[in-house]
Amino acid sequence: MTTQQIKCDVVIFGGGVAGLWLLAELRQQGFQTLLLETDALGAGQTRFAQGIIHGGTKYALMGKITASSEAISAMPSVWRESINGTGAVNLKQATVLSDNQCMWSTGALSSRMAGFFASKLMRSRTEELIKQKRPKIFQDKKFKGKVYNLDEPVVDTKTIIHSLAEPYNNAIMHIDSLPEWRQTNHTCFNIQDSQANQWEVITKRSVLMAGKGNAAILETLGFKKPQMQLRPLKMVMLRGSLPEKIYAHCLEANINPRVTITSHEDSKGETVWYMGGQLAEEGINRTNEQQIEVAKKELSEVLPWLDLNNVQWACLDISRAEPEMEKGKRPDTSYFIEQENIITAWPTKLALAPKLAADIIDSIKSENVVASGVTDFPDFPQPPYAVLPWQEEKRWQ
Questions:
Q1: Angle of the 353-366 helix axis to the 17-28 helix axis, nearest 10
Q2: Is residue 7 classed exposed, middle or buried when 0-12, 13-18 and 19+ CB atoms within 10 A define those classes?
Q3: Helices assigned H by DSSP within the chain
Q4: Among 7, 8, 13, which residue's Cα sits nearest to residue 37?
């Protein structure tokens, strides 16, 4: 079988939001860039994301501004510019599920204190809402806490993936093998696409953006570092007789909200509440049945007036890939490292994808990698798009 050759400035492994955002920016700046994906676009962490574009407020819940909140504070405005069509990439065709979110405190002292600290420290992006301006769910006479508006949007990750990928479909190859590196400086490798065609790829830089898939590619390179850690979560979904779509965090004196709820639609257009936060972090050692029981108890405590007798429940076990940190700590921001013409990167959070792309492009340019101009690639198969998990009926069985 004939092996065809492709020459690139940059090759990206991984078709999630971070990889596709980098592809879009590099192509716009004249870098001949190819993206390789073994699965569907958005099939990794992206499709399990709640779509929240964090601006750092939740990191203020312990009463201080942290490195995490500083690193991420500019991200909502960066995303909004792209959604409006004036940013680094064009996301005008993407769906914004909500222009903002809410934080609510219960009657508990610790919850009220968390709300107080967050509102004082992040006052430029939060405001307390009077009853008439709250989401209807928080206008119930039994509600005893406070509600704060949070100037951070929630996006539909499926439409984000489509908006990023569709202008550059002919630069995205569907592959079914790991690279076979042919040179010690790692600028040449062989790959097989999903139709069994063989390709030799010659590139100036390769960027590993494959989430937890980075580990397997690093192994093919023989690299011992960077090491990766996985942060497991057990998310909860419910659908049925839900009062409305909400996008809200229940505050507690913790680095994480007690529970975070975002709203989506299943394959039939029915509203789904998707629950994360501390509930998801603490649920990793529970069975699905145990986690659902805990979720029911949590909602009965933080939204006690709700009738949830006619809803269907499901769990999602997911893992967030991150660079290994001392004692398993959370990374403060996005991460990348370059070695032997290979850049290994993790955005660590959906919201940080634009920052990671900008940092990597700055690094590539600082190494005198010159854009050779964008030209058409030969024909090759493109990957499909991933289905969002709450739209897969098998998840609900």
A1: 50
A2: middle
A3: 17-28, 67-72, 75-83, 109-121, 157-165, 214-221, 278-282, 288-302, 353-366
A4: 13
Residues 163, 202, single domain; the answer is yes
- Indicate the SS3 state at residue 342: strand
**Residues 190, 236 within the same domain:** no
Q: Are 236 and 129 within one domain?
A: yes
DSSP conformational letter for 156: -
Closest-CA residue to 316 (of 231, 250, 396): 396
CATH code assigned at 178? 3.50.50.60
User: Is pTM, for the whole model, over 0.85?
Assistant: yes
**For residue 126, which of 52, 53, 55, 50 has the smallest C-alpha distance?**
55
Domains in the chain: how many in total?
2
Contact 205, 343 (CB under 8 A): yes
Range of the domain at 106: 52-155+230-323
Pairing of strands 311-323, 126-128: unpaired
DSSP 3-state of 281? helix
Bridge partners of 322, per DSSP, are 229
pLDDT at 72 over 90: no
Among 283, 282, 273, which Cα is nearest to 246's?
273
Tell me, what CATH number does 132's domain have?
A: 3.30.9
Q: What is the pLDDT of residues 10-20, one digit of tens each?
A: 999 999 999 99
Look up tokens 């119930």; give the residue.
Answer: 140
Q: Does position 126 have pLDDT exceeding 90, yes or no?
A: no
| CA nearest to 48, candidates 356, 311, 349 | 349
